[in-house]
Amino acid sequence: MKAVSYESKHKMAVGSHPKPELKSATDALLRVTTSGICGSDLHMYDGRTGLDKGTVVGHEIMGIIEEVGEGVSSIRPGDRVVLPFNIACGSCFNCHQGNTHACLTMNPESAGAAYGYAGMGPYQGGQAEYVLVPFADFNCLKLPGKEGDEWEDDFLLLSDVFPTGYHAAELANVKPGKTVAIFGAGPVGLLAAHSAMLKGASEVYVVDSIPERLQKAEEFGAIPVDVNDGDPVDQIFALRKKNRPIQESRRPGEEKMAGVDCVIDAVGYQARDDNAPSQEKPMQVLENCLRLVNPTGHVGIIGVYLAPDPGAKDKESKQGVFSFPVAKLFDKALTVGSGQAPVKRYNEYLRDLIVNGRAKPSKIVSHHISIDAAPEAYDKFDKRIDGYTKVLIRFGESKKSKASAA
Ligand code: NAD
Ligand code: ZN
Known about the structure:
about 400 residues; alpha/beta; Rossmann fold; 6-stranded parallel β-sheet; 19 strands; binds nicotinamide-adenine-dinucleotide; binds zinc ion
């Protein structure tokens, strides 16, 4: 079968790999119909993880079940399913608590497993024609409709970035009426904005420097903030000040609440320096979050901070150790949440929002490609050029790459 594998820094290859076979009675074999390229894959592509050469990548996967082991009872061949990127056993302590992002048994190295990802266990990825699904009863979400229908893109986004964006809004304690700022208008930040709107936030700001991504944020009802126009935190303070009814209803002392209730870091450790955009500044976004959030507010860290990082500048940052204004965190009495998203906690409900027309995550999709075009798509997505915001690999269609303006 054809699959995308990691070769070296800035090099992905499309090649022939053995088609997976059932190894246990609880496995299923999935024929992939669509697979996403994620911002998380770029950390590996940039050589910023300890990934082995030749690993088949891809953790955003949907398709049609081809075969199931005799121990699988709720999923049948022919079923259309999407896989949470977290692989979970369903029977350990954390899975019982709904914390499938920290499953204790599927990854021998640490808590939490995923398809085709550095440090997340020995699982082949799904940017491939077929993928093996362990504990298929637990790790498949059943979908309505037919392969390639109008929901194909929306459903694919249930594997990761939609539930991840929703989880970011949960970590940041977004509730009806609250004010929210999201740093990063990649797929995760955009779907955090969509989720914050679904949860009833009164103001949602989205910060980035890429015009087409900020425009998508606006399409979801958020207020775009362009880093090119100056310090993004100061811009949000100024925008909030312009809101007359809010200012007129202020009581004494509320000038200390000039920021927002909820902040989300949807960028992570490869954040760009606000003052020198060609350089990275790993703590840039977290520093901005702490300046912007109101006292007693919430910070959701959904952008990834990874170690070991072979591409980092110095010994400490290679281990993910940075200097961080912890006094500000304490002084403001903030609550911080972070980590991988437990996709299974949300994916059924988000599927039903899609099916009932209340959510349209696929607005973020910019390109559909064939697997042969994956190496080039990685390059453009990594450089964030030519409008590459979210790329989906389609299988079983024409082998020619086709860009869609969806
Ligand atoms: P992405 O990498 O394309 O998005 C990042 C965006 O941040 C880009 O648009 C970039 O221009 C912007 N950015 C960079 N520096 C910035 C700064 N200083 N201020 C504001 N914006 C800045 O892709 P993505 O898929 O949206 O992923 C975002 C992050 O979320 C990545 O770190 C990814 O690994 C992570 N992620 C986490 C989970 C999880 O479960 N926690 C799941 C998926 C992705
Ligand atoms: Zn992902």
